Amino acid sequence: MVQEKKQPDFMKPGIGNKFQEETKYTPERIGGYTLDWEAFPDQFKNYESPLAVIALPQPEFTGDPDLWKALYRRRSRRVYRPEESLPLVALSALLWATQGITEKHGDSLFRAAPSAGGLFPVETYLNVRLVDGLETGIYHFRPGRFDLEFLKRGEFSRPLAAAALGQGIVATAQVTFVWSAALPRSKWKYRQRAYRYIYLDAGHICQNLYLAGEALGLGICAIGAFFDDHVSDIIGIDGNDETAIYMATVGKIFEGK
Questions:
Q1: Angle at the Cα of 65 from the Cα atoms of 64 and 67, rounded to 5 degrees
Q2: Which distant-in-sequence residues (6+ apart) come within 8 Å of 228 by Cβ?
Q3: Among 211, 20, 219, 181, which Cα is nearest to 113's?
Q4: Are 183 and 192 a contacting pair, CB within 8 Å?
Q5: What is the spatial distance between Cα 250 and Cα 223, in angstroms, rounded to a whole number?
Q6: HEC profile of 28-45
Q7: Complete DSSP assignment for 16-76
Q8: Is the pLDDT of residue 4 over 90?
Q9: What is the average per-residue pLDDT within 210-238?
Q10: Cα distance between the two ends of the chain
């Protein structure tokens, strides 16, 4: 008789789990409201009576000029050249920029993007549509070994686009990054507050992808709207202990766009 493994205390349901579940998009639970543009909040905050207002000098972009250029040019780019293949070396550079190992201290491996407590709960999956030397399908990135595990063979771009609320850029992108959260990895230390940190981690990772994409002349577009469980099913995770949290498309863009 196989004895069931006891669930660790840190994985017991709490308010973080409730937030995660109740904010998931499903086909049955999305929309149902109209935006009130007259009530649109102010985009900038201003105090009525500050002690003073100090004008700042124009920034001087010293140091590495390429970094400043990448920050200045960073945009979400949605129009791709779907017929052109992405070089594998470019994909490798993007993966390193997002979660590549940059330093080792004892058993700790530091990565290109920071993580709360150095726990790195975010996993990277790739939907590969058109990359030199790779079959079409779903892959998993292993930062520690800096390689890809080929998980599913086949064309998943259109199902993934449908799961992303019909956003067609997923169907034309050469690659779509799908980030998941391995929840026990962060909840082990932070319990229910782990949910806050996981989304912060994902934001750091995606911004690195944007900047690396600009440096390589590639188009990046982050995607936060998708049917959570549909995306989890496509990449092959359970949607509970590990769940999809963020996506981003990578595509070849037209010159100067």
A1: 75
A2: 24, 25, 26, 239, 243, 244
A3: 211
A4: no
A5: 11
A6: CECCCCCCCHHHCCCCCC
A7: HHHHHHHT-BBTTBS------GGGPPPSS---SS-S---PPPPP---S-HHHHHHHHH---
A8: no
A9: 96
A10: 62
Residue 88 in tokens: 């594998």
Fill in the DSSP letter of residue 132. T
Show the DSSP H helices in the chain as ranges: 15-22, 65-73, 88-99, 157-163, 169-172, 183-190, 194-216, 228-235
Q: Is 187 exposed, middle or buried (0-12, 13-18, 19+ CB in 10 A)?
A: buried
Report the alpha-carbon distance of residue 213 to residue 201 in Å, rounded: 19
β-strand partners of 152? 138
Q: What is the pLDDT of residues 53-112, one digit of tens each?
A: 888 787 777 778 899 899 999 999 999 999 999 999 999 999 999 999 999 888 788 999
Contact, 163 vs 186, CB < 8 A? no
Q: What is the pLDDT of residue 138?
A: 96
Distance of CA 105 to the CA centre of its chain: 26
pTM of the model: 0.87
- As a whole number of angstroms, the distance between CA 130 and CA 132 comes to 7
Query: In this structure, how many other beta carbons lie within 10 angstroms of the beta carbon of residue 123?
Result: 21
Select from 135, 129, 201, 187 the least CA-distant residue to 161: 129
Query: CB burial class (10 A; 0-12, 13-18, 19+) of residue 7?
Result: exposed
**Which residues are bridge partners to 150 per DSSP?**
139
